[in-house]
Write a structure and sequence with these properties.
Elements: H1 3-36, H2 58-69, H3 72-79, E1 83-89, E2 97-101, E3 107-108, H4 114-126, H5 134-145, H6 149-159, H7 161-169, E4 176-177, E5 182-183, E6 185-186, E7 206-208, H8 210-221, H9 228-238, H10 246-254, E8 259-267, E9 270-279, E10 283-292, H11 296-310, H12 313-319
Antiparallel strand pairs: 1-2, 1-10, 3-7, 4-5, 6-7, 8-9, 9-10
Helix pairs in contact: 4-6, 4-7, 5-6, 10-11
Amino acid sequence: MNRIHLKSIFFFCSLSLLFSCAEGQTNSGSKNKNSQSDGLALPLDDENFVALMDTKDPILQSKLQQVIAKNAKWSELVRNKKMAVGVVDLYDLQNIKYAAINGDHMMYAASLPKIAVLLAAMDALEKGEIEDTKELRADMRIMISKSNNQATTRVIDLLGFEKIAAVVQDSTYEFYNKEAGGGLWVGKRYAASGKRVPEPLKGISHAASVDQVCRFYYNLAYGKLVSRERSKQMLEYMENPEIHHKFVNTLERVAPKARLFRKSGSWTTYHADSILVWEDGMRRYILVALINDKNGEQIIRQLVNPVERALQIESHTAKR
């Protein structure tokens, strides 16, 4: 074999190897991208959006009821309308599932309804009714992440109770509907002084129901609160909670890589928590609990694992 022929063979082999490596790098890069994320960014694409109340699922409902029934204390609280729980399974966006126990039962929810203040502030900013300032942005962040009462009161005073009530009752959202058992309401400053404007059904100053809080998170995840850009801003304010109790306490242990968007509340025996858990390929769900019991904080912590079993999180993990 002459030297020229050998050089030709070497050239074509080298070229083949080069293309093979390049293709392997391209495939590898694609594979790594898919392993880290399934491409679902928040807010979600709302092209196939379905109203949450139209996604009620009998199988998930049965599993949630079984979770509660296994615990005598929880069953008693549910029976006495002192506990409400709701869960939205977002794992398969083509088959969203919702289940709730005492979902339409409105309860005192302490600081959880501060999400309604955030929504009203975003609505007012979008309409040019209030000025967008660094101070307002800082207040909205700590109002949610640290549940700061002073910051919340400043935002409430800026908006006024009429504005907050108008937004939660707006037909676009209907987060408070008098004909459907109420829902989200803020009718008192988070301070000792000031007037009280309670919601009209039960006279609660800081109210919520599981159905309406789940709807809030669900619509937010789809970018449907005020506008897509405002929804994105709200998600940013709600991510990385700085109070590490209730749902967060458990989730930071079992799902340390998950993104958490959250607002909670506690006052005397009333304990509330709400969270959007987002971990691509594994955890994508909304969980809300309202409890009137001295041990409510611990109960909320304990809810996470059994609810995740009902959502079959283990099987999602096994598929990875």
